[in-house]
Amino acid sequence: MVQPVSNFDSVYIAPEMYRNEAFDRSVDTFAFGLILYEMIEGSPAFHPKPQEEAAKMICSEGLRPLFKNKPKSYPEGVKELIQECWDPTPSIRPTFSDIIERLNKISASCSKQTRWRDNFKLPWKQAVHK
């Protein structure tokens, strides 16, 4: 565990860092969940609010951005993965090994669905298996 030395106002900062509490590697998982959300939704969390306000909503108020599209608009399993990544309890967040495994399964599932086949290609497959 690492003890942070200052407060942050970034939307990607995990709540435990924002509150100046001890934290571990799961803070990276939290940030990844928000980045994956942005990739899927096409806009930052709580857009158009300023990043400082969005960080407060996420870290102090425990809010998470809403998924704006219909459930069928997302590859199966992506929403659930994002929600686990940004869980307020660090021990519930998946490890990156788990994330890669799940993304590989999501990719395999997408390759069977024609509408996702060409749009959801995962470049890390080659990097992980080298």
UniProtKB/TrEMBL annotation:
Highest classification ranks of the organism: Eukaryota, Viridiplantae, Streptophyta, Embryophyta, Tracheophyta
Domain of life (superkingdom): Eukaryota
GO MF annotations in UniProt: ATP binding; protein serine/threonine kinase activity
Record organism: Aegilops tauschii subsp. strangulata
InterPro entries linked to this entry: Kinase-like_dom_sf, Prot_kinase_dom, Ser-Thr/Tyr_kinase_cat_dom, Ser/Thr_Kinases-Pseudokinases
Protein name as annotated: Protein kinase domain-containing protein
Domain Protein kinase: 1-106
